[in-house]
Amino acid sequence: MGIIWSILKVSIFIGLLTPILRQSYKLIFIMALKPIVWIGFLAALNFLFFFIASIIQDSFNVVWWSSALSFFNLLSLNTQKENNGEIKKTTDDMYEIIGINKGRLKFRLGLYAYIVGGLLGWVIVYGEICTF
Predict the structure, then answer these.
(1) What SS3 state is found at 126?
(2) Residue 96: helix, strand or coil by DSSP?
(3) What backbone torsions phi and psi does residue 75 show, to the nearest 5 degrees?
(4) What are the C-alpha distances in Å from 63 to residues 67, 75, 82?
(5) Of 4, 21, 64, 130, which is most buried with the most CB atoms under 10 A?
(6) Are 46 and 24 in contact (CB under 8 A)?
(7) pLDDT, tens digit, for every residue of 57-105?
(8) For the stretch 38-72, what's the b/e string if a residue is b when 16 or more beta carbons lie within 10 angstroms of its beta carbon?
(9) How far apart are CA 35 and CA 30, in angstroms?
(10) What is the DSSP string of 33-93?
């Protein structure tokens, strides 16, 4: 029963975190044209997610899996390998049209900031569990 309950909690956390990630991309990155704010928001979001989820859930595995799966849910899957260069150029052109220079780079930096915020949250919140 414990495994089922853990899977249910991961699903709930993913259901809460993923829409926030996607909507922040749409609202902050695309509509407000503030990619630097979005990068900081992702780092703070994942850090706060670890902090708040540690209060709700004492197992760091549930929180870690939720954060990781939400991250992979934010990534777009590229299934067309033969048009990879064309897709990159189209994406760059789209960002240039709306006024964001080096948009793909800033998106990737946001993803890295999300990872760093999660790692910092994990170390600070769950660091005492991992002592040797």
Answers:
(1) helix
(2) helix
(3) -70, 140
(4) 6, 19, 37
(5) 21
(6) no
(7) 777 788 999 999 999 988 865 455 556 788 888 888 999 999 999 998 9
(8) bbebbbebbbebbeebbeebeebebbbbbbebbbe
(9) 8
(10) --HHHHHHHHHHHHHHHHHHHHHH-S-HHHHHHHHHHHHHHHSPP---GGGHHHHHHHHHH
Cα→Cα distances 27→18, 35, 70, 92, Å? 14, 10, 18, 19
Supply 77's token pair: 């899957």
Closest of 34, 98, 108, 29 to residue 75, by C-alpha: 108
From residue 50, how far is each of 11, 88, 92, 110 by CA, in Å? 15, 33, 33, 17
Least confident of 9-18, 32-41, 51-60, 66-75: 51-60
Each residue's pLDDT tens digit, 93-113: 999 999 999 998 999 999 999
